Amino acid sequence: MIFNSYVFWAFYALVLFLYWRLPHRAQNRLLLVASYVFYGYWDWRFLSLLAISTLIDYYVSHAICRQPDQRVRRRLLVFSIVANLGILGYFKYAGFFVREFADLLEMLGFQANLPVLNIVLPVGISFYTFQTMAYTIDVYRGVTKPAASLLDFALFVAFFPQLVAGPIERSSRLLPQLIGPRSLRSGDFAEGLYHILIGLLKKVVIADNLAPIVERVFSTPTAELTSADVLIGVYAFAFQIYGDFSGYSSIAQGTAKWLGIDLSYNFKMPYFSRSPSEFWRRWHITLSQWLRDYLYIPLGGNRCGVRRTYINLTLTMLLGGLWHGAAWTFVIWGAWHGLLLVAYRLVGMEKFEGHTSAWVAALQMVLMFHLVCIGWLFFRAESFDQAIGMIATLATAPALTDYAIYGAAMIVFFAGPLMIYEWYVYRSGDMLLALRRPAWQRCAAYGYCLVMLLVFPPLVQQVFIYFQF
Amino acid sequence: MLNTLRVRLKSTEAKIVLVLLACLIAADCALRLVDARLSGNIAHIESIPALVSSVATSEERSMLIVGNSLTNNGVDEKLLTERLSNISLAKVTPDGTGLWDWRCLLEREVVRRHDVHVDVVVIGFAWHLLSDQTRANASRLGALYCALEDLARPRSIGLRSFGDMGEFVLARVSRIYALRDVLRNRLLPLLIPHYEMYTQQANEARAGRAQQEDAPVYTYEHFRSFLSGLQQKGTRLILVAMPVQADYELDPELLELVASGAIGLIDLRDLEGLDPSMYLDAMHLNARGQQLLSEQLAVQLASFFDELS
Fold first, then answer.
1. Inter-axis angle of helices A171-179 and A125-141, to 10 degrees?
2. Which of A246-250, A372-376, B154-158 has the lowest mean pLDDT?
């Protein structure tokens, strides 16, 4: 079930209708059943993976909590991590590594007859695996207490608004909300409505209308493209992936809000960032924080000298890239961002994060946006060769084509108004800026969203990009 | 809890939603008043009930020529009227239509209407447009061709998923949504350079991909049931296989129906004398092509009516 489908909204309306008529415990049971129906609607067979992950982390976390012996506690934690990463590794990476291993053997002159693994990737497995792993690690660290009820914990893992594409929530934030009674507070309806409308606008109007431009540029042989075509293709992808993923996160926030639950912000105007570290504080925030807390800091963070800090940064971003998918293009995308973080540190991060004139700040934003776009080329390309070919085209084939003019106008028409609004949000630092504006302005903004949704839905419905991760 | 909900709904945001809904309803009503002026196709669709009435209530034999732009470009109504004396005819050819649209339209305007009787319905088609595998346009069906009660039997009007049904209902309720393609095609060419050219290219690429994905076996279950409705009303059905530049085959199940005598078939795919200069594009005939096809069609229809009498 996807957020931009009629079936989801019929399902959600039914859940919402029943939800506020039930007492608290029954609300949780309803949400758990609804979450399993939501996930099972895609493929019921993979519900077992969700259940296995839930059971392992529930019982291991209790065992860790009861166990006084530090060595046993550590073994239990390792068991949980191995089990979770084992499931993730098998479904997400086994085919890739077998293929790469076979290629390596053939390169070394051996005859490789390894089986071809065509494993279906369960939707959202990377998201819920990271969420449950973080929970068990937090219990081990004593940051959080294990959930008393298995059903509450199962709901924490499977809560449908954020199950398949995040935000990756921490147990310390989401579990107490699920365990405690909930009410619809003043402003919740308004906030939920705002998130849902802007999320649908980002996904249905912006991302899905730019998708055909991206598809065309990235499926055209590089030799037939000009620099303007490549530039428009990558700009369109930058706004497509932003609209797609931040749109999903926003709808997740809105639908959860109407259930009386706060989810974390996953995006905060990332394309106005002035440095890579600022970008990662604004893009896929919950994953960045996860990588920081459970990978970068345990690796030593910035506590072991400059050289080690650079290695830790690069390694964290490499693994962050690999998290997105089993392909070298994702690894290179991660490495590129690791490299940017190191390079900006070498130059002096304070130059890009401190107070400066508006013009310098604007130039820094434009530079950072284009560096991010180079990363997107690797992220979206079918192969490393295609990405390199497109970068070479950028430098060597300057020609303005009719298609580039068309693409640029489409980007401005669909993404321009949102970017203008986000600029004001960025300047104010208030994520709910629209809600502080007079009612007539909100009415105009929501009217714009509704008309765009009615008149400009995509010619072909697209699934969410991040579902594949 | 419900009381709390009621209190919240009295909030400013709820009022904003109500104002927006009122504005949307007003805009929708305004669009319903002027939509025929926005598009010739919509004006034609709105004139269909009157067209059917004018043909089917006359003293003469009556004939409806149904199809899409292939038939619209290919058939000269005036020429046919001149050649087929004593036959009252009308051309009903809304753009982009296929089996599901024609089924809803004819069931609504011919089968279910007690005040009309049409002797012959002629449908111009190409490829597999009459097969069960033809994709339905749920918005178009909901807003323009079907009645709400048709939703009770979604498969029979080509709605295959919950999404199709949602689209059908939304298009039925909101004219803005239903006519989004018209609005989009009016507005975006003004704002986006080369919009028409690249949109057309994208549509053709998508159609090509869809054709490749299509099922290799074409069935005619829904066409049979549609045919039976027409037969019960005493209306004969004649199919016209229209010419297009690329060759296409007629499906075996359709040919079986023709052989059984349930329907007539006028096969104009290889019309003698028709050459590429008589096409506007890959499929639509120009004035010369129309003249040639209409002459031939008139001859064949005349012999059919002779047999009928």
1. 90
2. B154-158
Q: Residue type at A398?
A: P
Angle of helix A208-219 relative to helix A227-257, nearest 10 degrees, comes to 150
- Residue B189, token pair as written in the block: 């060419």
Same domain, A244 and A165: no
Sorting pLDDT into bands at 50, 70 and 90, what band is A276?
A: very high
Answer yes or no: do B162 and A7 touch at CB < 8 A. Answer: yes
Residue whose C-alpha is closest to residue B139's, from B103, B186, B109, B97: B97
Among residues A179, A211, A238, which one ends one of the domains? A179
pLDDT digits (tens, 9 = 90+) for B212-254: 665 578 899 999 999 999 999 899 999 999 999 988 899 999 9
Clarify whether residues A217 and A147 are in a common domain.
no
- Considering only CB atoms, which chain A residues are within 8 Å of B184? 455-456
Q: Are residues A10 and A96 in the same domain?
A: yes
Tokens matching residue A112:
């490789």
B40-308: CATH topology = Rossmann fold (3.40.50)
The residue out of A179, A211, A236 marking a domain boundary is A179
What ipTM goes with this model? 0.81
Instruction: Tell me the pLDDT tens digit for each residue of B3-55.
Output: 655 655 567 888 899 999 999 999 999 999 888 888 889 999 999 999 998 88
Average pLDDT, chain A: 90
The residue behind tokens 């409505």 is: A193
DSSP state of A51: H
Nearest Cα to Cα of residue A67 among A78, A57, A76: A76
- What is the distance in angstroms between the Cα of A338 and the nearest Cα belonging to chain B? 37
Shared-domain flag, residues A85 and A124 = yes
- Residues of A belonging to the active site: 324
Residue with tokens 């709901």: A155
Residue A138: inside a domain = yes
pLDDT at A116: 60
For A318-466, strand residue ranges (E) read none
For B87, list phi and psi in degrees, rounded to 5: -125, 125
* Chain B residue numbers touching A436 (CB-CB < 8 A): none
| CA dist., res. B240 & res. B120, Å (int) | 13
What is residue A148's DSSP assignment?
Answer: S
Q: Does one domain contain both A12 and A87?
A: yes
Residue A258: pLDDT over 60: yes
Residues 6+ apart with CB under 8 A from A267: A242, A245, A246, A249, A250, A282, A283, A284, A285
How many Cβ atoms sit within 10 Å of the Cβ of residue A114? 11
Kindly state the percentage of chain A with pLDDT values over 70.
95
Indicate the Cα dihedral angle A335, A339, A341, A347, nearest 10°: 180
Please tell me if residue A149 touches chain B, with a CB cutoff of 8 Å. Answer: no
Residues 6+ apart with CB under 8 A from A163: A35, A38, A39, A124, A127, A128
Give the domain range for residue A230.
Answer: 188-275+349-468
Q: How far is B88 from chain A (nearest CA, A)?
A: 40
Partner residue facing A20 (CB), from B5, B14, B17: B5
A393's CB contacts (< 8 A; 6+ apart) are A222, A225, A226, A227, A229, A230
Asked if A139 and A270 sit in the same domain, the reply is no
Which residues of chain A neighbour B10 with C-beta distances below 8 Å?
none
Tell me, yes or no, whether A66 and A39 share the same domain: yes
